[in-house]
Amino acid sequence: MSGTDSPRSEQEEGRAFMPKFDAAGLLSAIVQHAETGEILMFAFMDREALDKTRETGLAHFHSRSRGRLWMKGESSGHVLRVQQVLVDCDQDALVVEALPEGPACHTGARSCFYRALEGDELRRID
Which value, in Å, is the radius of gyration of the alpha carbons in the chain? Predict the structure, then answer.
């Protein structure tokens, strides 16, 4: 390493994948439709979920409520086929570009972001 190189500059500008998990061991993951750009959902990934996603090409996440790994669509069949993973500058957040096989939201909505805030109320936008 030269005098100007540091682990931080390597993490922020280098080629090495060095994910920065938070104190709970999690990364934020935004799922975006790979073709339309629509935001489909938000979830967390731990090391196991990230490794399983990279290994299988299907989106896996860490369920904080269940306290375990889960594959999106494991019960509904509405999997997310990962096309690309984008990594932010600090390597503490991801954008997972995926092709959904069915609704992305557990409510049956196309996206988990199906309501807009208007004043103090929510309005459905799907």
Answer: 16
